[in-house]
C-alpha cells in the first residue's frame, strides 16, 4: 500500500509525523481527502480535525486553522495550534467552551464577539476530537 509522509507543525514545534494511507481534513473550500499521488496544492484550513488513516486505524489531530501543503508523496500542515487526541486536556477545553459561551451571552462589541466565537469553535473542536466525534 502506498503511503504519504505527513507532518503537522506549529510555531511551538512538531506535533505529529508519520506515514499514512490517507489524510482528510476541512479546508476553507470544503472537505479534502488526500491519497498518495495527489496533485500539488496549498489550501487554507478551518478549525477542525485532521484524520490520518493507516490500515484499520484512524488518528485524529485537532487543528485551529493554518495551511495544508500537498506534494505527491508528502503532506505538511502548518497549524496555529495542533493537538493529538491524547494531547488534549479535556477539562481545559470544557472550561474554555463555558467561558466562550458566557462571553457570547454578555454584551460584547463586534470584535470581542468574533474572538469569543472563534474560542468557542476551538473548544468544541478539541472536545469533538477527544471524544472521537469525527
Ligand atoms: P484556552 O482558553 O484554554 O487557552 P484557547 O483556544 O484560547 O484555549 P489556543 O490559543 O488555541 O487556546 O492555544 C494556546 C496553546 O494551548 C496551544 O499550544 C494549544 O495547543 C494549547 N491548548 C489549548 N487548549 C488546549 C487543550 N484543551 N488541551 C491541550 N492543549 C491546549
Automatic annotation (TrEMBL):
Q: Does the keyword rRNA-binding apply?
A: no
Family membership, please give it. Belongs to the ATPase epsilon chain family.
Q: Which residues form a coiled coil?
A: 90-133
Q: Which domain of life is it from?
A: Bacteria
| Membrane topology summary | Peripheral membrane protein
Task: Outline the extent of the ATP synthase epsilon subunit C-terminal domain.
Answer: 88-130
Q: Which organism is it from?
A: Heyndrickxia acidicola
Signal peptide range: none
Protein name per its UniProtKB record: ATP synthase epsilon chain
Give the subcellular location: Cell membrane
Give the record's keywords alphabetically. Answer: ATP synthesis, Cell membrane, CF(1), Coiled coil, Hydrogen ion transport, Ion transport, Membrane, Transport
Q: How does it assemble?
A: F-type ATPases have 2 components, CF(1) - the catalytic core - and CF(0) - the membrane proton channel. CF(1) has five subunits: alpha(3), beta(3), gamma(1), delta(1), epsilon(1). CF(0) has three main subunits: a, b and c.
Domain ATP synthase F1 complex delta/epsilon subunit N-terminal as annotated: residue spans: 4-82
Q: What does this protein do?
A: Produces ATP from ADP in the presence of a proton gradient across the membrane.
Amino acid at each position: 500500500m502506498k503511503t504519504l509522509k505527513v507532518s503537522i507543525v506549529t510555531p511551538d514545534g512538531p506535533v505529529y509525523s508519520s506515514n499514512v494511507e490517507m489524510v482528510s481534513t476541512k479546508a476553507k473550500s470544503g472537505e479534502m481527502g488526500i491519497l498518495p499521488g495527489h496533485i500539488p496544492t496549498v489550501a487554507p484550513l478551518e478549525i477542525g480535525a485532521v484524520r490520518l488513516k493507516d490500515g484499520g486505524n484512524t488518528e485524529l489531530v485537532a487543528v485551529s486553522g493554518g495551511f495544508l501543503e500537498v506534494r505527491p508523496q508528502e503532506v505538511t500542515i502548518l497549524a496555529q495550534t495542533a493537538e493529538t487526541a491524547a494531547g488534549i486536556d479535556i477539562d481545559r477545553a470544557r472550561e474554555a467552551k463555558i467561558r466562550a459561551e458566557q462571553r457570547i451571552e454578555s454584551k460584547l462589541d463586534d470584535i470581542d464577539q468574533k474572538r469569543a466565537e472563534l474560542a468557542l469553535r476551538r473548544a468544541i473542536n478539541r472536545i469533538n476530537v477527544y471524544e472521537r466525534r469525527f
